Amino acid sequence: MLGQLIADRSFGLALCVFIGLHLVCTAAGLAVYQCPFHLLTGLDCPGCGMSRAVLCLLRGDWSASVQWHPFASFFLAAGGLVCVGSVLPRRLRLSLAERVATFERRTGATWIVLITFVLFGLVRLAARL
Q1: SS3 letters for the chain?
Q2: What mean pLDDT do residues 36-46 have?
Q3: Could you give the CA distance from residue 8 to residue 29 in angstroms, rounded to a whole number?
Q4: What is the pLDDT at residue 29?
Q5: Mean pLDDT calculated for residue range 33-40
Q6: Exposure letters 32-48 (e unless 16+ CB within 10 A, then b)
Q7: Residue 62: is its pLDDT beyond 90?
Q8: What is the pTM of this model?
């Protein structure tokens, strides 16, 4: 999954621009995106708190980041790889994408992170009900 995102330069650039703008707006206190799940249900989705957690990581406040969302470091690292890949020359971008895809196939790391991310969200949701 992540390898494919790195290989697709246009999608990677668009994703980096969107996430960058979202983080800048969040840091400035502008609520330009509202979580549809939270708007409909009033409950936290598995990703609620992720933007604030990533901003805490970027400021170097690791403990606050983990309190907001413990998966922020994984998503920041993945986003960083996509952003770096999107500006690399074609040969280097495709080489990085292939290395990441090989790592994903061998370890199942992407699926492990995504499944535990959803399970974390469900446990957090159940604890607040």
Answers
A1: CHHHHHHCHHHHHHHHHHHHHHHHHHHCCCCCCCCHHHHHHCCCCCCCCHHHHHHHHHHCCHHHHHHHCCCHHHHHHHHHHHHHHHHCCHHHHHHHHHHHHHHHHHHCHHHHHHHHHHHHHHHHHHHHC
A2: 87
A3: 31
A4: 87
A5: 85
A6: eeeeeeeeeeeebbbbb
A7: yes
A8: 0.81
Q: What whole-number distance in Å separates Cα of residue 15 and Cα of residue 5?
A: 9
Q: Look up tokens 């668009």; give the residue.
A: 14
- Angle, alpha carbons 97-100-103 (nearest 5°): 150
Q: Report d(CA 41, CA 79) in Å as an integer.
A: 28
Kindly report the length of the chain.
Answer: 129
Between 24 and 1, whose confidence is greater?
A: 24
